[in-house]
Design a protein that fits this description.
three-stranded mixed beta sheet; 3 helices; alpha+beta; 3 strands
Amino acid sequence: MLDTEAAETIDWHHPRMAGIAASFSRHDRVAVQRLPKRVEVVRYRVFEGDRLRLLLVDSSLGSANAASFRRTQAA
């Protein structure tokens, strides 16, 4: 948990979301690209010895203009 001083240093105006899972469907990735929010899709894999690998699968720019542009390109 953040203390008050640390929380005040964060720019809360431009948050981003991250979805972390062992796998994502094609539909998940399409949905992320259509959202007007900053979203990152990260796949994880746990290896022997409790080693963890994170792989950025997809991310959206997070602007409403970019989302509407992607929708018109898909149509």
